[in-house]
Amino acid sequence: MTEELLVVKNLKKYYPITGGVLGGEVGVVKAVDDVSFAVKRGETLGLVGESGCGKSTTGRSLLRLIEPTAGEITFDGVNVTALSTDEMRKMRRDMQIVFQDPFASLNPRHNIEKILEEPLVVHKIGTSSERKKRVQEMLEVVGLSSYHARRYPHQFSGGQRQRIGIARALMLNPKLIVADEPVSALDVSIQSQVLNLMQDLQKEMGLTYLFIAHDLSVVRHISDRVGVMYLGRIVELTTSGQLYSNPLHPYTKALLSAVPTPDPDDVRERVILQGDVPSPANPPSGCTFHTRCPHVTEECRSTRPAFQDVGDGHFVACHLYKQ
Amino acid sequence: MSDPVLQIENLQTHFFTDRGQIPAVDGVTITVNKGEVVGIVGESGCGKSVTSLSVMKLVPNPPGKIVGGTIKFKGEDLVTANEKRMRDIRGNEIAMIFQEPMTSLNPVFTIGNQIGEAIRLHTKASKKQSRDRAIDMLKKVGIPRAEAIVDEYPHQLSGGMRQRVMIAMAMACNPELLIADEPTTALDVTIQAQILDLMRQLNREAQTAILLITHDLGVVAEMCHRVVVMYAGNVIEEGDVRTILKKPKHPYTKGLLNSLPKLEESQERLYSIPGNVPIPGSLTVGCRFAPRCDQATDLCRSEMPQLKAVGDNHFSRCWLSE
Ligand SMILES: Nc1ncnc2c1ncn2[C@@H]1O[C@H](COP(=O)(O)OP(=O)(O)OP(=O)(O)O)[C@@H](O)[C@H]1O
Ligand SMILES: Nc1ncnc2c1ncn2[C@@H]1O[C@H](COP(=O)(O)OP(=O)(O)OP(=O)(O)O)[C@@H](O)[C@H]1O
Ligand SMILES: [Mg+2]
Ligand SMILES: [Mg+2]
Asked: What positions does the domain ABC transporter occupy (chain B) (predicted)?
């Protein structure tokens, strides 16, 4: 067994832009543009970045819920990019996803028992009574009770729904959970309940998480290592301690300094970035951050910086740190 | 310092639904003085937006109705003001910014048209002059290519740019009070930083009072002089920003602050307030927070505490704070 559960190499996802009178392809949106990372068994890797930087596209591509344009994804020693649709479906027993609001995609006419049972039915696991027993167990694991099994999605609060989303992902006893903004829609008091639950489950069940969020404090709290994305690329990746105490990429620094902290005496120096994030349909040349970077040089405008280890597994893609 | 622009006193705004009467805002008192930034914080459904919509008299009626209390704007009672007077006030003396700027921008007029109109309402500027001023305003709020953007329509702009246009409009009419309801919640942190900066500028340069509604205690720390914490339709604690964030008295405020993951240090485990906010309209006796409070006593469960002074300009609605 290798230390790494998931290895992603040179992942790309380009969406065609169609237009013109003939509806032909007139360009591409480079939603994910050459991303590489690995997730170790039992760890939580966080992915942060601003809206549209490609976090969800990355997460979904890993499970091939959307087909990657290029790249290699190795999960538990198996190259999943080479699997047939049927083999991939079986593989997904071990890789599950939790969404921001899992109920947006669920049938409002099914009760919770039916919703939680469904993955077992799809994979033809257990008898009807065994499945019902598993549903009860999972409800208790996530802090709900069998009393909730007969209720319908709309009868739950946001925090309870997220518990159900997590329970559903856990039904098949997976190895990896991709959690795409699992707490972004929740109030802080409920957010902390769900984060604690996720940490407890990880310890008990030996889960590995890819945790996607745009809130840096949340990602720092839950993750062992964090990758920062900008315009379809990972610009920095290191341990969460290093990222916050010693950020290297100018974008990471700006992002960290922009987060308001609930301390009125906090007098950090603010780097306020000018302008908006450029469009991934027309990304800047060279380093895609060069249009907003306070340290931009000629080289940044023309040459894409390599994503390299600058020591102790601290990766950064920036010409300032060339070796 | 006591030069009140807005005085909300014992406001009660209820909704009359088939599930019964819902006391969404149930006796709220908030004062905003000239040049002051006052924050309202609290979890989803606690009545922040209904409070601000009540001030503007924009609560949908039916089902909503102000059933008690007074709202005074520079001494004038808004609860009894007629719709014509309210139309004069809205967007002029009191400007508003919402979470989703598209709700307040008109999709069929260009950006220049909309800012220009606000300018012409306040000065005797000609069409040409107000267009030039609109371009100046857009530049001031940091919009690139202002000369071109002025002729574009709202849907052609990003969320952050639209929010900047809203601020430009608010600046153009030089209001006494700006009500901002989650103005940066839908925006990324780097764009949020730009917008907060602009609001601070408006407050400092024009002495505009701001009532800022947010659920983000970080935004509160950065922007507000004073904070009002709401829970289930009530104000449960109020004080200056430093007191509320550093020495809160109410168990709910303490719980909220402890639930937050911290950026600067790692914590093993987060504190979490047990349970959920009460279902709106559910009958309660005693303190509304008692079912979730780990210090609740029999008194808390049987009698509702009043908002009482617990220090200098510091108020808490809790039997234990006394
Ligand atoms: N089906 C699609 N067709 C075309 N473009 C798409 C499609 N899905 C996503 N995109 C584009 O790809 C880019 C990355 O989107 P993605 O949803 O991965 O971002 P994200 O980082 O998850 O953002 P958010 O924080 O808003 O969820 C965006 O510019 C988006 O507009
Ligand atoms: N149109 C309506 N009909 C019935 N009840 C309503 C209506 N609008 C609001 N309410 C009630 O008023 C309460 C307060 O709502 P409000 O929008 O003020 O909450 P909020 O504090 O702004 O929450 P959020 O943080 O989610 O914006 C809600 O719990 C809701 O039950
Ligand atoms: Mg996403
Ligand atoms: Mg609201």
From this structure: 6-257
Q: How many CB atoms are located within 10 Å of the residue A15 CB? A: 16
Asked if A134 and A168 touch (Cβ cutoff 8 Å), the reply is no
Number of CB atoms found within 10 A of residue B190's CB: 23
What tokens does A323 get? Answer: 């070796």
Query: What is the count of residue pairs from A and B with beta carbons less than 8 Å apart?
Result: 119
List the Cα angle A298/A304/A305 in 5-degree steps. Answer: 95
ipTM of the complex model: 0.89
Residue B18 inside a domain? The answer is: yes
Helix (H, G, I), strand (E, B) or coil at B249: coil
A56 lines ligand 1 (CB under 6 A): yes
Torsion angle in degrees (nearest 10) through CA of A148, A150, A154, A160: 20
Distance set, CA B1 to CA A82, B4, B122, B207 (Å): 70, 8, 28, 12
Task: Indicate whether B255 belongs to any domain.
Answer: yes
What the block records as the tokens of A84 is: 């047939």
230-259 in chain B: CB under 8 A from chain A: 241-242, 245-246, 255-257, 259
- Strands B234-240 and B314-316, by their bridges, are antiparallel
CA nearest neighbour of B164 among B147, B187, B181: B187
Exposure of B284 by Cβ count < 10 A (0-12 exposed, 13-18 middle, 19+ buried)?
middle
Q: For B286-317, what is each residue's pLDDT tens digit?
A: 999 999 999 999 999 999 999 999 999 999 99
CATH of A4-94+172-321, one of 3.40.50.2000, 3.90.1170.50, 3.40.50.150, 3.40.50.300: 3.40.50.300
Domain membership of residue B259 as a residue range: 4-93+175-316
Residue A277 near chain B (CB below 8 Å): yes
Residue A1's identity, in one-letter code, is M
pLDDT tens track for A139-153: 988 888 888 889 888
| Chain A, nearest residue to B144 by Cα | A275
Considering only CA atoms, which of B140, B139, B159 is closest in space to residue B149?
A: B139
The answer as to whether B99 is a domain residue is no
